[in-house]
Amino acid sequence: MNAREGTLLTPAVVEFELDGRPVQGYEGETILQVADRHGVEIPRLCYTPGYRADGNCRSCMVEIDGERTLAPSCCRAPVAGMKVQAKSERALKSQKMVLEMLLSDMPQKGHKWIGNDETLQHGELSEWASRMDVEVRPALAAISRTQPAPDLSHPAMAVNLDACIQCNRCVRACREEQVNDVIGYAFRGHDSAIVFDLQDGMGDSTCVACGECVQACPTGALMPKSHIGAQEVDRKVDSVCPFCGVGCLLTYNVKDEVIVSVDGRDGPANHNRLCVKGRFGFDYAHHPQRLTKPLIRRAGVPKDPDAIGDPADWSKVFREATWEEALDLAGSKLKSLRDTHGLKALAGFGSAKGSNEEAYLFQKLVRTGFGSNNVDHCTRLCHASSVAALLEGVGSGAVSNQVSDVEHAGLILVIGSNPTANHPVAATWMKNAAKRGTKIVLADPRVTDIGRHAWRTLQFRADTDVALLNALIHTVIDEGLVDADFLTRRASNYEALKANVQGYSAEAMAPICGIPAETIREVAREFATSKGSMILWGMGISQHVHGTDNARCLIALVSVTGQIGKPGSGLHPLRGQNNVQGASDAGLIPMMLPNYQRVDDPGVHAWFENFWDAPLDNKPGYTVVEIMHKALAPDSDPHKIRGMYIMGENPAMSDPDLNHARHALTSLDHLVVQDIFMTETAWYADVVLPASAWPEKTGTVTNTDRMIQMGRRALNSPGDAKPDLWIIQQIAERLGLSWNYEGPECGVAAVYEEMRQAMHAVIEGVTWERVEREQSVTYPCLSEDDPGQPTVFIDTFATKDGRVKLVPADIIPANERPDAAFPFVLITGRQLEHWHTGSMTRRASVLDAIEPIATASMNGGDLRKLGVEAGDVITVKSRRGEVALSVRRDDGTPTGAVFIPFAYYEAAANLLTNAALDPFGKIPEFKYCAVAITAGGTPAPTTGYGRESTEAEPAVA
């Protein structure tokens, strides 16, 4: 397909002869690819689909009539009339000889890996040798080489170069696919070897543990430590990664009912790639702290907001119960509060880490069982302002173009996002594009790793997003770079936007945002004139009191330049959790029913009342932070929240101003928590219901690219833990709802089909059977023959008039500014190895081994002023709380700022953050508050998560 024009181009056919029979190849294919399509088996070791062919192992040699030498079929293209023999005596002799020589250099007695005496088969090399009936002759076996010692320095991977055939697949995996540039090929001749950085141990190198090299290695020279020894597994189960919103397809390898390793699959979002979390963060599901029995709070045990115990030792606070007792107590108490205090007395937090079906059923339970719209989830804490602006401007809260579409872009603007840490596989597509010449512009107060690949870096002052973006828009208009035709045909309110940015020239904004005026103008010109300019953003844009205005500016920037509605352009808010897009689509938000239909729209309200056969509230419910406020409201308030049902969320760690949030949770009359671990939130519960981890359920999730994808159950839940879908239905029954979802896996297909009817305008053509068959389907998809639309807004926007609405924005300062008492700015966020509140990743052995303790990041200049060095302890204090933790030097963090990840309960960053809300998206201002920093302090002990109490370890400098 010609992506720019949207027309199908039929590839040229090449007719030639393969092993005496006519075959057809297509332009761009190699002989090996054609042979694979026609069932002709040719060995190969240095080649793997998706990677650049190298032709260095020589095991795929074929004979071509009229040519003196054999040719490597992996990197030789056929031409018309060519006669190729893959099975001739000469070709077979060469193929077998190469396999035998490589095999003869392998360890013959097996490796002894960490006490494992099993013989290690040499992966693809052994497989091809077996298929080609190749054995090593004694004369060759007698020739031995000095074998290099194994390198076991990395927590996740073992390096055994005595099995290395120097095929360079690992080099291509690291440098060309993931673009991490850690693995190289060094020295010459007999001494040539694969090395990590400057011949460091793998564990001491800059490796980010994506594991691409392990998946690429054909011999076992690089292996996951969890899968050393015999490679046979009991079963392989295809599923989806449970972490970020990229939605990588993967395969769980299960042996003795334990996931022993994970492989990337060729899904449309990842094409076999994974990151450290997806590949090595799987064993949380087997952690000994898994909840396996329903728990009920012991009589007389108070809820103390300052007391969160060891999750491995809950017996003094809770007692075990049967499912019937726990469900009856949970349901009856919620029902009693509803019937006694009215329909506004209850609220529910659903989860973006579960399935679409769970999200849909949970919000339906709250609306039809609780009787209000007081239902929300983590989108309120990540992209609520982005969604508010997108719904207002373009009529849809989803992305206009998929991440991989950066392949067609001329310029990529990454703003308010750290993709190499938060969306690592998505970042690989950006880095791949940069290597091909696409210009990346990084705009962020912090210079992160993607900056190494950037054409221009705009390190603007924190909180000056609108100033910078309006300056870019002003430049486009001032220099006559607008797409006048696009604005005339497809935009509204342009004149108001134009008038508003008159005072935002690059020269006027340069002193405010800290970027030279000429740099602003240079970037604006390139953005406007490139063949396609695409904006990808994260929570650095959304988590401000002006987050909606930030996103409005991004919409305006692509609109005035006409950079939307075509490949390689448009708007992409990178979604945080694995199903935050799907959970939002399914209606897990307080002002919207499924598919973003307003609860206060009379027609929508009537349709859902009829569809669900239940009376519904026609007023928007409260959001996450508002619910916490209402939990602390006086008894006289008729809308006081008295009971909550929380599924898979951890507001005692994720909410801003945690002291306030924890006080609110302990003030509830009744709290039901459904989770897989004793989270910080679960400590405040009256009933704790043990649920299913992602590898233990079947269901769909929707990734950041609008792809509905199938996850399949690989394991049974431990003990008496139950599927989330079953638990929701049991609670519904005790609230008086008559549901009947029949079928395997708790009726998941029936729930999906009901959800599809509720969202018919976008997923009408995505049936359950189709997702099962295709594994990944892009929406909007209005018929079963519709392949889906990876690029939307090509001809019209989803607004009422079909035009993009341009909304002017002015500078609104952060709610809390630095002053003499609190002179630093706190920026919070995620890091590569840990996710959200850490309840899963800190129980994943590899991830916890790589990043075991909380650290703050500051630049070297600020460290010197404080008189501290990397690894020292500092105390960070705001007007709401304080934490003590080790400090790490990071010169990408701007002067006057400190960055703290929020995954560590012992140094919870959200004890410090400000609960001030964006007035439109109702999102808290996580990305900006004033703090004071002093040297020294006593870090909280790291008890819990199965580890002993320890003193704080020094941070990695």
Automatic annotation (TrEMBL):
PROSITE patterns: 2FE2S_FER_2, 4FE4S_FER_1, 4FE4S_FER_2, 4FE4S_MOW_BIS_MGD, COMPLEX1_75K_1, MOLYBDOPTERIN_PROK_2
Record CDD domains: fer2, MopB_Formate-Dh-H
Tagged with keyword rRNA-binding: no
UniProt family annotation: In the C-terminal section; belongs to the prokaryotic molybdopterin-containing oxidoreductase family.
SMART domains assigned: Molybdop_Fe4S4 (SM00926)
Coiled coil: none
Boundaries of every 4Fe-4S ferredoxin-type domain copy: 155-185, 198-227
Domain (2Fe-2S ferredoxin-type): residue spans on this chain: 12-90
4Fe-4S Mo/W bis-MGD-type domain: residues covered: 234-289
Any single GO BP term: formate metabolic process
Record keywords: 4Fe-4S, Iron, Iron-sulfur, Metal-binding, Oxidoreductase, Repeat
Keyword Metal-binding in record: yes
Lineage: Bacteria, Pseudomonadati, Pseudomonadota, Betaproteobacteria, Burkholderiales
Name of the protein: Formate dehydrogenase, alpha subunit
Any one GO CC term of the record: oxidoreductase complex
Example GO molecular function: formate dehydrogenase (NAD+) activity
Cofactor(s) named in the record: [2Fe-2S] cluster
InterPro entries, A to Z: 2Fe-2S_ferredoxin-like_sf, 2Fe-2S_ferredoxin-type, 4Fe4S_Fe-S-bd, 4Fe4S_Fe_S_CS, Asp_de-COase-like_dom_sf, Formate_Dh-H_N, Formate_DH_asu, MoPterin_dinucl-bd_dom
